[in-house]
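User: Hello! My lab partner asked me to get a predicted holo structure for this protein. The small molecule is adenosine-5'-triphosphate, SMILES included with the sequence. Please write out the structure tokens.
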Amino acid sequence: MEIFSNTVEETEHLGAALAEHLLNSGRFPAFVALYGDLGAGKTAFVRGFAGVLSPGSRVKSPTYTIVNEYRQGKKPLFHFDLYRITSEDDLFGMGFDEYVDAGYCIAEWCEHIGSAMPEEPVIVRIEKAGETSRKITLSEDL
Ligand SMILES: Nc1ncnc2c1ncn2[C@@H]1O[C@H](COP(=O)(O)OP(=O)(O)OP(=O)(O)O)[C@@H](O)[C@H]1O
Ligand SMILES: [Mg+2]
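Assistant: Hello! Below are the structure tokens for the protein in complex with adenosine-5'-triphosphate.
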């Protein structure tokens, strides 16, 4: 599925819509793999996603901490930034597998995940199509 977003808010709304869809379809736990360059809008998408699963939370890219945990919602939510992950050892070292089994996970920079990709990920690709326009591609198996 391909959708164009023309504002940050539209990208946030798409993130929210995906979270609603996962909740409504009883899909839990679930892993959302985000792909896209610096400044594509991955964190914007996560803001909308987290707004549904953990209302009121303030989302910031966990660039240095790798993962931010949101446990105040109905189900745990884990937001990853895998930019600084360079090996599967790094991933296992931070308890990646345990997170994957324990909640909704949404991860920026899944280019760095290699063969450690969890099963049946929801794939989201965000590409710059213009100054404020983004092409967002969601996997078909939703
Ligand atoms: N349609 C759009 N959707 C999302 N962001 C947009 C859009 N148009 C412009 N932007 C701008 O693009 C930037 C996206 O920033 P964001 O932090 O979400 O990117 P990112 O993919 O998480 O980058 P990083 O790889 O550094 O984490 C923001 O400055 C935002 O204002
Ligand atoms: Mg980001």
